[in-house]
Amino acid sequence: MSSSSTTSSVPSICNEHSLARINSIIKQFNLIELPREGGLYQLIDQSSIEVSLSSQLKLHAQSHIYYMLTYSRPDEPQLAHNYLHSIENSDDLHILVEGDSVDYYLFYEDGHVEHKILGNDYTAGEVPVISTPGTISSKALKLRPGKNGFAFIVSVITPEWTPDRCKIGAGQSFLDKYIGKEEWCTKEFLTELIGPNWMDNNI
User: Fold this and answer.
1) Would residue 199 count as lying in a domain?
2) Given a cut of 70, is residue 39 above it in pLDDT?
3) For residue range 48-104, what is the model confidence (pLDDT) as tens digits?
4) Of the candidates 41, 77, 46, 74, which has an alpha carbon nearest to the alpha carbon of residue 59?
5) Please, which residues have CB within 8 angstroms of residue 55's CB and are 6 or more apart in sequence?
6) Which are the contacts of 122, defined by CB distance < 8 A and separation ≥ 6?
7) Domain containing 34: what range?
8) 8 A C-beta contact, residue 196 and residue 83
9) How far apart are CA 191 and CA 170, in angstroms?
10) DSSP percent split of the chain into helix, strand, coil, nearest 5
11) Does residue 15 lie within any of the structural domains?
12) pTM
């Protein structure tokens, strides 16, 4: 992984054209801040089909969500991060609509980790679609600094996203499990991915 993927530095401001585009998307799709997890979002719709995870739990087969990460507000760094979290028993498919590249850090129950990049530079190994399985332990996203200052994404969550099934944050047991798994898995960087959601009980 290049050092640029783990840097904490962020652009201080987006240019006038980028700000206009960001604000236009936010207004057109009525994006609002996603508490604790970070970024901006808005539910598009839900599948008309229902599925059962158990005899007590019925869910829509999918949720479709607009999602944005942005550096347009330097005093609100949480808008450029999707802090460490997991969605219980749901696969999550992200499709880049427009904007800059995004780092995805994936943490699995068996202890292995992955780093992927959502973006349009396919020759550099970036991909336009990233899918994370519902069996994953947790994941975190971080917007890469770029000329646009944002990434606009469509998320398809199967079965649907519900707040009570989204577990956010981690603690010391997370660090103990994943520090040193890859070069980028330092205590400092993993703590940055957890962000303000530090807790004693690991997700």
Assistant:
1) no
2) yes
3) 998 988 777 899 999 999 999 999 988 899 999 999 999 888 999 999 999 999 999
4) 46
5) none
6) 128
7) 3-48+58-194
8) yes
9) 9
10) 20, 35, 40
11) yes
12) 0.89
